[in-house]
């Protein structure tokens, strides 16, 4: 009888864990933390790039509500002004600093931005650097030449496979084709972010404290067929910032890398941090993504995953059972590219089950 009771309890526990995993929107360590630690960010200086829309805007709202002193950056100053007016909190909106920033503007410009940020709030210095800015499609609506318009549309909508990348394409910066998008992706997602980090880290090291929070992607943890260049840029970020943390952790520098899958944003409904379009995927809301990001940062997590299934399961497989995870991605890779070309659901289980379309 006792054995039967124990068996039932074991089965119940296993079922509960499976249910939690199936319905999860983040990794188990992240979800176990429940709430953000307000005391970790209240009255701290938080600098957010890409804060004019999407996840960056929501991060600004949530950090402001927790009492942080905010510096918000993006290229569009008018949009930053709009966001500032929406912020409420102990230091918002009146004390919020707007600092226009273009990550592709070069090291001199980035250094000027760092000096300005460090001088804010009576030279308090930046406590949290939220690397949220990333390359997105050009502003097609602002272009007048229809030929240029069509080339830019092509550049965005074409799926970039690994064989599309050449050494020459990565050097070109003056054409509105897929080649332009490759260069822009690395300039902003990687080189600009790394340069800003190097410049700011010097000040953090002098103070003996600082925390980099990096908005990476699930595409930086697993193969992403059809998104080879975007995936490469996110793998580069992950490798750099994990190495940076290992080098500087004992000197007071922390790093949290956040890897979201498909995210629903109000400003650009079809966009997500995995670089893929489509309307039928199950997405985590931008509000929930920001909430979990701040939870990860305030609890000092080194890495956090944010996604619904099946992306979350694939991340676990690639991390802990790589042979199976990579076999799975090899199985669906070609079909995923075909579905992406048809603007279908590139995260559908039907890809694994052998159906040709996931529309």
Automatic annotation (TrEMBL):
Any one GO CC term of the record: membrane
Stored Pfam families: adh_short
Keyword Signal: yes
UniProt keyword terms in alphabetical order: Signal
Secretion signal span: 1-16
Membrane-spanning residues: none
InterPro entries per record: NAD(P)-bd_dom_sf (IPR036291), Sc_DH/Rdtase_CS (IPR020904), SDR_fam (IPR002347)
Identification of the protein by name: Dehydrogenase/reductase SDR family member 7
Naturally occurring in which organism (per UniProt): Rhododendron griersonianum
